[in-house]
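Here is one such tokenized protein:
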Amino acid sequence: MTIGVISDTHGLLRPEALAALAGVQHILHAGDVGHPKILDALREIAPVTAIRGNIDEHGPCGELPPMEVVTLGGAIFYMLHDGSTLDLDPAAAGFAAVISGHSHRPRIDWRKRVLFFNPGSAGPRRFDLPVTAGRIEVEDGRLEASILALL
């Protein structure tokens, strides 16, 4: 199963992001959506699981959950916007991956056989950080993550 991962769109869904996510079976949006039209456009590609970020305070995006647990391809994903606020042991909880955003910095890290994945920011460029999204391949319980440069 191929999962697209995107975060920090801040109301901007670039054509490059749509192209990068084409063909995935599910999309995870790790918050700071910015506008519900982003989720509508992503749903045209695949089903979407989204959480709210710190800018998603009001309107429809404010109704998104602050965290989510979703099982995809037999792997359990824990989603929260700001990974620094993680207050549980993902390995003990049985999670295969922790998906976050917020920092705008793409990251792939493994700790105690748990994937910590931040796809970076796919929205407006911030400082000198790259504009990115990500993909996770799930096969036979194994995860393989990649960061995709959008610009």
Q: What stands out?
A: The radius of gyration is 14 Å.
